[in-house]
Amino acid sequence: MEVEIIKAKNRNEDSYAIQKFDRLRVAAYCRVSTDDEDQIKSYNSMVKHYTDLIQSSADWEYVGVYADRGITGTKVDKREEFQKLINDCLNGKIDMVIAKSIPRFARNTLDTLKYVRLLREKNVAVYFEVEKINTIKDGEFLMTILSSVAQQEVENTSAYVKKGLKMKMKRGELIGFQGCIGYDYDLNTKTLSVNPEGAKVVEYIFERYINGAGSTVIARELNEKGILTYRGNEWVSSTILGVLENEKYIGDIRMGKTFTLDPISKRRLDNHGEEEQYYIHDHHEPIISKEVFEKAQEIRNRRNGKKKSALVGKREKYSRQYAFSCLLECGFCGSNLSRRNWHSGTANCKTIWQCVTSTKKGKKNCPDSKGIPEYVIEKAFMESYRMLYCENKEILDQFLKRLEKSLSEENSEKNLHVIQTKIRNLTNKRNTLLDKYLEDTIDKELYQKTDGRYTQQILGLEEELELIQNHLSEQDDLKKRIQEFKKVLTQNEGMTGFDRHIFESIIEKVIVGGYDDDGKRDPYKLTFIYKTGFKNTVDDANDKFGLPKKKPGRKPKNMCSDIIDNVKNVCSNVINNTL
Question: What pTM was computed for the model?
Answer without folding.
Answer: 0.37
